[in-house]
Write a structure and sequence with these properties.
By secondary structure, the protein is α+β, with helices and mostly antiparallel strands. It has 3 domains: 208 residues, no CATH class; 348 residues, Glycosidases (TIM Barrel); 92 residues. The chain is built from 16 helices and 41 strands. Helix 2 runs parallel beside helix 4 and helix 12 runs parallel beside helix 13. The chain is globular and about 85 Å long.
Length: 781
């Protein structure tokens, strides 16, 4: 049975039918195959950016070329990045991950990609999964058997990026393999499990150390420096996504769990009396279903039978003790790795790790790093069958706005005040139909929070070749739906995101609220799954700067940070005598007990009072998001951006939008360094959705993919009226062109002058007789 809901809504601009008809099909119990037709038009997805075109941001990137000319990236006392030779100058970054074979290019292609990335506005690149390719046979023949030909390609690419002013970050372990002969204590090969082995296996640690030594001390013939010496290497993550709490340690294989039981017994024996409780039972729980040790599915998207830990009141104390042991073990393991890098190899670049999950125990791990890094996604795919390239991939078809605003809300508590904060993996993933909203939401809230570096995952992630970076292609399977090179909407949106974060005039919140973690409760919870940072606190990050501090730092340190970082209030799980006094005048402490945390903070003047519980206004007044309407407005001097569901009408200071019957994200950006009020060159984006020809979903709810389809890409039909109040608004002063994704002008587009001669209106249509249009350039004579 098919049920159709129809809403007819008047529009403030005329379209062919004179009204906006919003309709939804429900419950069609047959596959939904996407094909070209009235709603979808074929689209050529060009990847390059023409020099001097409206998408070209390389001038801003080249200004710091070569990367490292001002010394290393350092940290400042107020918790940001700066340049070693210009310590008063803030360093901020927007970048993208390149993964697997996309990092290994011949020299001509390496230079082409480096130019393209600079023109896109990226001033940093993360080498993701690089380790799997820089060793021979992906590590199966030896985990530190460096392939010198591959290393030469990687070093040339690094030099090409450095030459253009682009900094690099990388992980010393991401996904290379370890053959059985290297892991005699297990007698089997491992891959991702090495992250759990390193803290409890001397042999595993030595394997990590040997790779680090061989790689970081190799002299790059194209820079004359080793990796360890080069200031263009801005940071190193010692291990990627290695948190003990990623899904809970007890789901690991019994031979690894036996090592942890032994290590816990030794740790327990070293503790003063009274000793922590012994483990209530074996870590191995045969009653729990196992999941792959390399599973990268976000924890909140895994089945409850896998993720729900088991505990009882009787073993709560033992579980908390085990979680404390894991935390202390991780701190010691990190300190050992960092000491080797610093003291043995002479590495001076910034170090971090433990970059997924948001538990309170991790605050104590991350507090030892030079900066805090984390990962999060919206619509991360869930794989029903990892042996299949695409069948059965579960996806989320809903806008993050009308859902939980998961990204970036979930990230906000994990920042530790006084340290730089980065997000080295994020994505609003294909094929979510509202993913164009990510280009507004992620930079807007990241800038509000005053974060320091953001990286989309990823630019290209095919693990067998890099052809998709040069020849149009669709995604190659469920593990590669992240790639921007196969997603026209995602690629253009992330270019806009880079502009907004680095040059869009988004202001940080003037004041902050800090959560005080406490060892008294940080380790509470089932073994391997301690308590998360509080969800109630995460919602505050949609309005003001938020983060966490360990309460054990003491009153003096907390008071100093409160003054320096303008922290106006502290939140605790329960009253903490150690933080009650002396705090600076005007600072308050609020407990989570009793609920209504936001309302109590607002009543005390630390947050704005929200009349509508589903509408969020940032403390700067630049961003407004309505969960009920599904809308967002970002208004700055240099940009006005709108997330508009079907039939939505929205307005800013100088731009008004009346959307048609299709979701759209609309960006108006002053790309000449001026304010919108006196800009002479604007970039206007009208982004709907893109899917692949023949892409098949189980039904019209689009929650499960059966086939990823083929070329050509298809763009969703959409219309929007975009009205602009510009300097000298006239059709002779201003001209408009439809441009392709390279920034090349395609044809003139008519602008309509209002009767009072104050406003120019652009009628944007993604599908026209001339072809598909997603972007426009407006220029003033």
């Amino acid at each position: 049975m098919i049920r159709i809901s129809v809403q007819v809504m008047p529009l403030v601009f005329a379209i062919a039918i004179g009204a906006c008809i919003r309709y939804t099909l429900h419950g069609a119990d047959r596959p939904d195959v996407i094909i070209a037709g009235p709603d979808w038009a074929p689209y050529d997805h060009p990847l390059d950016i023409v020099a001097g075109g409206v998408f070209d941001r390389s001038g801003f990137v080249f200004a710091d070329a070569p990367a490292g000319k001002n010394g290393r990236i350092i940290t400042t006392p107020d918790g940001h990045f700066a340049f070693e030779k210009q310590p008063a100058r803030r360093a901020r970054f927007w970048g993208v991950n390149l993964s697997f074979d996309s990092l290994y290019l011949d020299r001509e292609k390496a230079d082409l990609i480096a130019d393209r990335l600079a023109r896109a506005g990226y001033n940093t690149i993360r080498f993701s999964h690089f380790d799997q390719n820089v060793v021979k046979n992906r590590g199966h023949d030896g985990s530190h058997n460096i392939d010198l030909q591959k290393l030469d390609q990687l070093e040339y690419f690094f030099a090409a990026l450095k030459k253009r002013g682009i900094y690099v970050t990388l992980d010393l372990y991401h996904s290379r393999h370890f053959p059985a002969r290297e892991i005699p204590e297990l007698g089997r090969s491992v891959q991702m499990e090495i992250k759990q082995l390193i803290p409890v296996s001397e042999n595993a640690y030595n394997l990590w150390r040997e790779f680090a030594r061989k790689f970081l001390t190799h002299r790059n013939p194209y820079t004359g420096l080793t990796w360890a010496e080069d200031p263009a290497l801005m940071s190193i993550c010692m291990l990627n996504e290695e948190s003990f709490f990623f899904g809970g340690l007890p789901k690991r294989k019994p031979d690894i769990l036996a090592l942890y039981e032994k290590a816990y017994a030794e740790w327990r024996a070293r503790q003063p009396d009274p000793k922590p409780p012994a483990l209530a039972a074996s870590l191995h729980d045969p009653g729990r279903p196992a999941i792959a040790t390399d599973d990268v599915t976000p924890l909140h998207q895994l089945p409850a039978s896998v993720t729900a830990p088991r505990t009882t009141a009787n073993n709560a104390e033992a579980d908390a003790a085990f979680n404390r042991f894991l935390t202390e073990l991780k701190i010691a393991s990190d300190a050992r790795m960092a000491s080797f890098l610093r003291n043995d190899l002479g590495v001076r670049t910034l170090l971090s790790g433990d970059n997924n999950m948001n538990t309170e125990a991790q605050v104590y791990v991350r507090d030892h790093y030079d900066f805090v890094d984390n990962h999060e996604y919206w619509n991360h795919p869930v794989y029903a069958d990892r042996s299949s390239t695409d069948a059965g991939i579960k996806v989320n078809p809903h806008s993050s706005i009308v859902s939980s605003l998961w990204l970036p809300r979930e990230l906000t508590p994990s920042r530790i005040f006084g340290k730089p904060y980065t997000v080295s993996e994020y994505n609003y993933c294909f094929p979510n139909p509202a993913r164009a909203e990510g280009g507004v939401l992620m930079p807007a809230w990241s800038a509000l929070q005053d974060w320091d570096a953001i990286y989309n995952f990823d630019y290209s992630s095919r693990s067998r070749d890099n052809a998709a970076m040069f020849t149009p292609a669709t995604t190659f399977g469920g593990g590669y739906v992240f790639a921007l090179v196969t997603d026209p909407i995602g690629m253009i949106a992330d270019r806009a995101a880079a502009f907004l974060f680095l040059h869009g005039g988004i202001k940080p919140a003037p004041e902050a609220i800090a959560y005080l973690a406490s060892k008294q409760h940080a380790f509470d919870g089932p073994k391997g799954a301690p308590r998360k940072l509080p969800g109630d606190f995460s919602w505050l990050g949609l309005q003001t700067r938020t983060g966490t501090l360990p309460a054990e730092r003491g009153d003096t340190t907390l008071a100093d940070l409160a003054r320096k970082l303008r922290i106006r209030a502290f939140v605790t799980l329960e009253p903490l005598a150690s933080a009650a006094s002396p705090l600076p005048s005007g600072r308050s402490i609020f407990t989570l007990e009793g609920g209504r945390l936001e309302q109590r903070l607002a009543a005390a003047g630390h947050l704005p009072v929200r009349a509508d519980p589903d509408v969020f206004h940032t403390a700067t007044g630049q961003l407004e998001v309505s969960r009920t309407a599904g809308t967002a407005r970002l208004i700055t001097e240099r940009a006005e951006c709108f997330i508009a569901p079907a039939c939505a009408t929205l307005a800013g200071d100088r731009v008004a939008v009346a959307n048609g019957d299709t979701f759209a994200a609309i960006y108006v950006l002053a790309v000449d360094g001026r304010a919108l009020s006196d800009s002479r060159r604007l970039l206007v984006l009208h982004l709907t959705d893109s899917l692949n020809t023949g892409m098949t979903f189980t039904d019209d709810r689009h929650e499960r993919i059966e086939s990823l389809g083929t070329l050509p890409h298809l763009i969703r039909r959409g219309e929007a009226s975009i009205s602009l109040k510009l300097s000298s608004p006239s059709t002779t002063t201003w001209q408009a062109w439809a441009v392709d994704a390279t920034g090349r002008r395609q044809h003139n587009v008519q602008l309509k002058l209002s009767p009072d001669r104050t406003t120019l209106t652009l009628q944007a249509r993604t599908v026209t007789p001339e072809g598909v249009t997603l972007a426009y350039e407006l220029s003033r004579n």
